[in-house]
Write a structure and sequence with these properties.
Helices cover about 45% and strands about 15% of the residues. By secondary structure, the protein is an alpha+beta fold. Among the domains are: about 120 residues, Ubiquitin-like (UB roll), CATH 3.10.20; about 35 residues. The strands form two sheets. It has a five-stranded mixed beta sheet with strand order 2-1-5-3-4. Strands 6-7 form a two-stranded antiparallel sheet. The protein is rod-shaped, with a radius of gyration of 49 Å.
């Protein structure tokens, strides 16, 4: 029975199909086995190559093994505050433009005007107020408040723009940024009060921190800013004194020659 079935064409084709399937399975198994062997051999050779690379390029291989997380990034260092100097100008009232040269002189004589200040640290608002009050004693009793302003570029009288304070007030960082590290003058403008521009005496508290010199004519000591004006007035007075003396001496001589004497009864 089996011999008869085996000789039929259908049986022959079925047997050929089975043989074909078996050959395909054997080939796939052989391919997977050879690939596994090749991977094992490559894995076996890899440590040797890595060792040779590490010997030849130690720095490169160590850096590559660490990856991104292995870099030692330097810790962030806080920037140190550097002391800077800036020019401040206290204006006698709230204005919209910078003062004229004549007004500068009036402010200086009244203890206001221009000052050169230094800021050694990043001050808070209270420390900034104390710094300004030491430079301008007239700021101490003020109750109406003040704001800082700066002028736009150019020459002559310029418009003033407000320097907005931070949430905690005016700080050293705010002033340094607004002044361009001391390159731009900062103006203090009172909001609700007006300072008197009457000239102060030379020994006033407002002039205590200023450099002083002595007038050779009257020997008075005063700030250098005011000495230049005083010298002109003092020299004019001193030059007029000899003329008065000469006139008086001439009248006395003429009276003596004529025999005239002043009446003793006055």
């Amino acid at each position: 029975m089996q011999s008869q079935l085996g000789t039929t064409p259908a049986a022959v084709s079925a047997e050929a199909a089975v043989q074909n399937i078996l050959s395909i399975i054997n080939e796939s198994l052989a391919t997977s086995t050879s690939s596994e062997q090749g991977q094992g051999q490559s894995l076996g050779r890899r440590p040797g190559i890595q060792q040779e690379m590490a010997r030849s390029f130690p720095g490169f291989c160590r850096r590559g093994n660490r990856g991104k997380a292995g870099f030692n990034r330097p810790a962030k260092v806080a920037k140190q505050w550097t002391t800077f100097s800036f020019t401040i100008f206290l204006v006698h009232k709230h204005v919209e433009r910078t003062p004229t040269p004549v007004e500068d002189l009036q402010h200086m004589q009244a203890g206001l005007g221009k000052r050169m200040l230094s800021m050694p640290s990043d001050m808070n608002h209270a420390e900034v107020c104390s710094l300004f009050e030491r430079a301008y004693p007239k700021l101490i009793p003020i109750t109406g408040g003040w704001l800082l302003y700066k002028a736009s570029g150019g020459n002559g009288r310029r418009n003033l723009s407000v320097v907005l304070p931070d949430s905690e007030g005016y700080t050293g960082s705010t002033i340094r940024c607004a002044s361009g590290r001391g390159k731009t003058m900062i103006y203090i403008l009172p909001l609700q009060e007006e300072f008197d521009l009457t000239p102060l005496p030379h020994d006033a508290e407002e002039f205590m921190q200023m450099k002083k010199a002595e007038c050779k004519t009257c020997h008075k000591v005063m700030p250098l800013q005011l000495l230049a004006l005083h010298v002109q007035d003092c020299e004019a007075l001193s030059s007029s004194d000899p003329e008065i003396t000469e006139v008086l001496s001439y009248k006395e001589k003429s009276c003596a020659l004529s025999g005239w004497q002043p009446c003793p009864v006055k």
